[in-house]
Amino acid sequence: MVPGKTTLPMMPLGRGARRKNSQLPRRSRRQPAETGRRFLDLRSGEVDIKHPKVRHETVLPVRAPNLTMQYPQVQINHHYARLWTGHDFYPQFPSFATCSKELKECSGHVFVDSVPEFCLPETELIDLSTVDVILISNYHCMMALPYITEHTGFTGTVYATEPTVQIGRLLMEELVNFIERVPKAQSASLWKNKDIQRLLPSPLKDAVEVSTWRRCYTMQEVNSALSKIQLVGYSQKIELFGAVQVTPLSSGYALGSSNWIIQSHYEKVSYVSGSSLLTTHPQPMDQTSLKNSDVLVLTGLTQIPTANPDGMVGEFCSNLALTVRNGGNVLVPCYPSGVIYDLLECLYQYIDSAGLSSIPFYFISPVANSSLEFSQIFAEWLCHNKQSKVYLPEPPFPHAELIQTNKLKHYPSIHGDFSNDFRQPCVVFTGHPSLRFGDVVHFMELWGKSSLNTVIFTEPDFSYLEALAPYQPLAMKCIYCPIDTRLNFIQVSKLLKEVQPLHVVCPEQYTQPPPAQSHRMDLMIDCQPPPMSYRRAEVLALPFKRRYEKIEIMPEPPPRPAQPTSGKKRKRVSDDVPDCQVLKPLLSGSIPVEQFVQTLEKHGFSDIKVEDTAKGHIVLLQEAETLIQIEEDSTHIICDNDEMLRVRLRDLVLKFLQKF
Amino acid sequence: MPEIRVTPLGAGQDVGRSCILVSIAGKNVMLDCGMHMGFNDDRRFPDFSYITQNGRLTDFLDCVIISHFHLDHCGALPYFSEMVGYDGPIYMTHPTQAICPILLEDYRKIAVDKKGEANFFTSQMIKDCMKKVVAVHLHQTVQVDDELEIKAYYAGHVLGAAMFQIKVGSESVVYTGDYNMTPDRHLGAAWVDKCRPSLLISESTYATTIRDSKRCRERDFLKKVHETVERGGKVLIPVFALGRAQELCILLETFWERMNLKVPIYFSTGLTEKANHYYKLFITWTNQKIRKTFVQRNMFEFKHIKAFDRAFADNPGPMVVFATPGMLHAGQSLQIFRKWAGNEKNMVIMPGYCVQGTVGHKILSGQRKLEMEGRQVLEVKMQVEYMSFSAHADAKGIMQLVGQAEPDSVLLVHGEAKKMEFLRQKIEQEFRVSCYMPANGETVTLPTSPSIPVGISLGLLKREMAQGLLPEAKKLRLLHGTLIMKDSSFRLVSSEQALKELGLAEHQLRFTCRVHLQDTRKEQEMALRVYSHLKSTLQGHCVQHLPDGSVTVESILIQAAAHSEDPGTKVLLVSWTYQDEELGSFLTALLKKGLPQTPS
After folding, report:
1. Do B495 and A377 touch (CB under 8 A)?
2. What is the ipTM of this complex?
3. What would the pLDDT profile of B519-549 be if each residue is shown by its tens digit?
4. Chain-centre distance of CA A400, in angstroms?
């Protein structure tokens, strides 16, 4: 209960948010340029479905807006990390004699040839062993967890919901599996030399913290990291050291996705990350509980504020149908969980009416089966419609029926059963959406040369042009239907109006229009007072003024300690001296003279005389030689040393006053 | 005096008809709303007229909580909500909400269609009743209103079974419902955190039993089933469709697989497949092992266990049949029992507790001649075995839970009086908390001492700390401040701040006392003597002699003056404010006694 600091420092340890199409030099290093090219380890030769060639991405940093908050004794780490695309550079550049082995050329562009690497959240700025708690918002936001729990001295607790952990595990498992399938001995490191990197063109030369980029973790590390997570449910109040309470709330974005409330007895911080107000499969966003926040930290908004997810789904379906009807194949690079559930549900409703019932749908991922199975057992985390299906009892997602009727088939990889079952034309859902590893690479090479085929990008995390760059020239059609259900700026302002936080804190990028659309003043957060913004590794003092602490009071005052009178025959005078620290109540009110005099008379005083003075009155008790000066805000009793009389007068005066 | 009142309307020193009224900090909560399997008359439902004589139940009760889907915990719910009339919220977990209406419908069918009872609740009433249900997640804090919150904990027992914490301010009650402290083949163990409730209301079905290890019981069960089918006998296992049934199915399924047995195993009626489906969809509520492996192999997809048809009962040769209901009080299990009871080769295994009045209870207590409807007497020659597979905590488990929760007191329900008494003593001895076991309709009143949380202004707190001692948890401190109550928030501030906030001016009350002393010395000298006297007497107080000749003790001012008429008398003017009342009063008394003759 020690009164704590009145400010609450907050450190963003990762990129707060990413915006595409960045043109500003400062920001361009955080965001990939749309027009970039990247290197791929291109191997020539035919593609054989049984022996797929795999392309290697240059570098894949992990995006990690990652905030640390410090309450008096608790550090809370909002941490999340998502994959995002790497950095490119241009070929027409001075020679790189020293690192030429790492550089390869493709269609006139040069790329780094390396094992994929990932950018971690900031680990230099704070000592992670001093972080007590990590709160996970959703399964996309925990991809860097093994790096932190396994190698930083972090010993705190990680909190996440059960679906977040289970699906997060699947995403990590898929990533590890994809990477391990294409072993490569060497990470490219020479280009990271500051003297060389400095000479490279933007955005590569601006890539942050390249020296800290790391290779993928192992499954062992994943398991160890996940075993440190404590499962929590929505609206569960979790006490942290008696100092603060944290509560996850449904954020409506994904299965088990959460916003977090961090509150002490008198301050409330809401951390809103990756939220959606649209009706998709997850439980709707809990907005009510966000009310009365002193500070609302807002991040994880939509990557594509101008695209309407509903329209995109429509476009997805029609493009898919068109391609298949023309005898072409459709490739959908995707994550193994999330939007794919919604897409499958749309297709479930769409395929019969579109005459696609005979077209096989393949879902290829090492975790495809698990993902489909897990989606059916989290009824309690789903929207109302899906929840009520379980009561029938029926599986909440219709993909169960698609599997039963053999319309949807899933395979761990393109090896084995798949190569026997494979029929064309077909629709394939597979990863990785960056097109840098995973089975998707194989299908790009298999289908890229025919204009009958279509690749449809739905995941918003990667620029499709960048993803495609190394495959150029391509004959296949490319459709960009990014489906990002997270909050757009209109929804944000609706949300803020509803929730009315005292202060909004958000990444700097949200406080100005996107660089490519600088005239779009509607594509930024607009609220009063204006949001406080932060950048990576910046320490922000949150505007708290702590004025109260919580204590408990007893219904009755404790008995006064008994004076130790007995035993000693003679007391010293000083034993009786009253303690000057006893309670000293203040008085308030005023004394109406007439009533006071009446009261005195009632109590047996006679011979009372009242004189007026400049500021009030003097009441004279002539018999008792006593004088009472009464003014608006003071009373002075002057009397002889007659304690009885004084106490009587005192109590009569006090009758007119209030004690505080 | 604040208190918690508990009145069992059912399950007080009894098993069945669980229904417990709890009043806590002005909130009234009803825990469970069950029926009694042993009765077919009025006594099967709790006496709801006890709750309120003429008011509406909705006005009186803040909420109803259902712990799990067994009928002795939810069987009276449609009667209560639709026929007696209750429109407030009913809380239960998702699986309970899913399964409860099915069992209620089943129960209704047996009562109305088979027994022809009139004035029973209808299917529509079950539906309407379920509309009042609010589903809760495990560990979610549900705010029933501004003050009352409830939270569910995992209880094991059956799919979706939960224990509930009911909390108002600092007072709380934990109600266990039925629970199981050892994980079984399909469910996990009950768990509650150290929530230190004011009262723990625990079931006590197995209050005196310490059960042998689960493994032994399982081996025993398999051995008995195996021996019976080996010698060509039929095995009847009366179960409830959900719960034990799944555990025993898993057990038999794996045994059949291992031993490569071909004897058919049946499971009665369609409810079962549906039941297994619920287990598949609510797999997150099962135990760790099943949850971990469900993608590869779903334990609730049985290969050896097939659906039962009524005609099969007359088939020759051995078989194993799971049939509902579990206490042989009606339905298919009773039908099969009547068919097979006469053959000593057959066996009935009762895997759970049977309430008094049921056929199950009768045969378990050794009765071999049963009077059936129409004065028929059924002679039971088949072997009767009892295997405690009920997922209730045994005495050890109950003690373990009490240890986990650390309650201030314990109240036992859902058990037999004699056994309860034993456990009650044990709990009182071991945990040194009072333990109650009220009968139905009897009210237990527990005085509580709620804490009153208030916000103390940092200014006041810092001032307190400046006086020394840092605040210590759990140690009482006396401090003076003003409590401002506004919009149900309590704030403790300094008196000055309170006056300021309320826009009031301070009124200063000052006293000046004239102390007459016989002394001829000059005033200045007089003052000096007063100073020396006080200085030596009041050690530890700040006594000062000011240049103007006056003396101060702390903030009390003493001046010496000449008497206007008598030169041999001097007057000491002692002046203090109301805040220094005690010291001022003390000083005047002290000075009145006079000054010592020789200045020290």
Report:
1. no
2. 0.82
3. 878 888 888 888 988 888 887 788 889 888 8
4. 31
Nearest C-alpha in A relative to B136: A380
According to DSSP H, which parts of B174-213 are helical? none
Domain-located, residue A250: yes
Q: If you measure CA to CA, which chain A residue comes closest to B152?
A: A236
Find the closest chain A residue to B516 by CA distance. Answer: A641
Run of H or E residues at A171: helix A162-181
The catalytically annotated residue of B82, B171, B203, B247 is: B203
Name the region of B196 (left: φ>0; alpha: ψ -120 to 50; beta: rest). Answer: left
Q: State how far the Cα of B207 lies from the Cα of B426, in Å rounded to an integer.
A: 10
Q: Do B456 and A550 touch (CB under 8 A)?
A: yes
Q: Which fold would CATH assign to domain B510-593? A: TATA-Binding Protein (3.30.310)
Residue A421's Cβ-side half-sphere holds a number of Cα atoms within 13 Å equal to 20
A105 shares its domain with A185: yes
The H-assigned helical ranges of A366-474 are: 368-376, 384-390, 399-404, 417-421, 440-447, 464-468
Predicted pLDDT at A497: 94
Residue pairs spanning A and B at CB distance below 8 A: 212
Q: What is the pTM of this model?
A: 0.82
The stretches of A393-481 forming alpha helices (DSSP H) are 399-404, 417-421, 440-447, 464-468
Same domain? A432 vs A319: yes
Give the C-alpha separation, B253 to B244, whole Å.
14
Domain ranges of chain B: 3-210+391-442, 214-386, 452-465+479-506, 510-593
Told to judge if B501 belongs to the known catalytic residues of this protein, a careful annotator would answer: no
A387 touching chain B per CB within 8 A: yes
Alpha helix stretches (DSSP H) within B260-366: 271-281, 288-293, 331-340, 359-364
Give the torsion through C-alpha atoms of B532, B533, B537, B543, to 10 deg. -50
Is the Cβ–Cβ distance between A399 and A345 less than 8 Å?
Answer: yes
Q: In terms of CATH architecture, what is B214-386?
A: 3-Layer(aba) Sandwich (3.40)
Q: For an interface test with B, give the residue of A641, A643, A648, A658 to mutate (most B CBs within 10 A).
A: A641
Same structural domain, A385 and A291: no
Q: Using a CB-CB distance cutoff of 8 angstroms, which residues of chain A are in contact with residue B476?
A: 554, 558
Interface of A with B in 632-651 (CB under 8 A): 632-641, 643, 646, 650
The verdict on a CB contact (< 8 Å) between B499 and A586 is: yes
Rounded to whole angstroms, the Cα distance separating A404 from B502 reads 72
Q: How confident is the model at residue B54 (pLDDT cuts 50, 70, 90)?
A: confident
Name the residue of chain A whose CA is nearest to B138's CA. A233
Domain that holds residue A535: 233-301+486-514+521-539
CATH match for B3-210+391-442 among 3.60.15.10, 3.30.1160.10, 2.130.10.10, 3.40.462.20:
3.60.15.10
Residues A169 and A155 in one domain: yes
Burial A336-346 (b: 16+ CB within 10 A, else e): bbbbbbbbbbb
Nearest Cα neighbor of A235 from B130, B159, B134 is: B134
Q: CATH number of the domain at A314, please.
A: 3.40.50.10890
Dist. CA B193–CA B201, nearest whole Å = 15
In a domain, A111, yes or no: yes
Backbone angles phi, psi at B362, to 5 degrees: -65, -50
Give the integer Cα–Cα distance in Å for B179 and B177.
Answer: 6
pLDDT confidence bin for B269, thresholds 50/70/90: low
Residue reference for tokens 């990014």: A482
**Digit-coded pLDDT (tens) for A137-190:** 999 999 999 999 998 889 999 999 999 999 999 999 999 999 998 877 677 777
Taking each helix axis as running N to C, give the angle between helix B581-592 and helix A643-654, from 0 to 180 degrees, rounded to the nearest 10: 160
